[in-house]
């Protein structure tokens, strides 16, 4: 007769969802106007924001709102092209800041 191993009490690895790498943030895109020396419109960032853009985003909630996850990018582009919507309003405010 063979013994069937019983799972250990503290071992719940099978129930846990896979974890994302701690150092790999989700990709985002900057959708505001081009800011010379800091950011170009519709630039994507896969490993965090560049230092100049990060400083600008920390100083301005408007610019921070224009950094969006890639799944929102089509909607943002649609609003900017239609010249209507929340992101277009933010874009106009960001033009005054830069």
Derived structural class: alpha+beta
Using DSSP, what is the number of strands?
Answer: 3
Mean pLDDT: 86
* Model regions low in confidence, pLDDT < 50 over at least 5 residues: none
Nearest-angstrom radius of gyration? 21 Å
Question: How large is the count of helical segments?
Answer: 4
Residue share in helix: 25-40%
Strand order of the largest sheet: 2-1-3
Provide the succession of SSEs.
EEHHEHH
Spatial shape: globular
Q: What does it look like?
A:
The structure is a single chain. By secondary structure, the protein is an alpha+beta fold. It contains 4 helices and 3 strands. It has helices spanning 51-59, 61-65, 73-82, 86-97; strands at residues 28-30, 43-45, 67-69. It has a 3-stranded antiparallel sheet. It is globular and about 75 Å long. The mean pLDDT is 86.
Compact description:
The protein is built from four helices and three strands, in the order E-E-H-H-E-H-H. The protein has 98 residues and is of the alpha+beta class.
What is this structure's SSE topology?
Elements: E1 28-30, E2 43-45, H1 51-59, H2 61-65, E3 67-69, H3 73-82, H4 86-97
Antiparallel strand pairs: 1-2, 1-3
Helix pairs in contact: 3-4
Q: Which characteristics define this entry?
A:
alpha+beta, 98 residues, three-stranded antiparallel beta sheet, 4 helices
């Amino acid at each position: 007769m063979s013994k069937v191993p019983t799972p250990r009490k503290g071992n719940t690895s099978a129930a846990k969802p896979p974890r994302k790498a701690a150092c790999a943030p989700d990709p985002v895109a900057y959708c505001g106007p081009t800011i010379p020396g800091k950011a170009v419109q519709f630039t994507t960032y896969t490993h965090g924001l560049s230092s100049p853009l990060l400083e600008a985003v920390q100083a301005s909630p408007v610019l921070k709102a224009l950094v969006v996850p890639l799944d929102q990018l089509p909607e943002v582009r649609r609003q900017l092209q239609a010249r209507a919507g929340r992101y277009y309003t933010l874009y106009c405010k960001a033009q005054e800041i830069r």
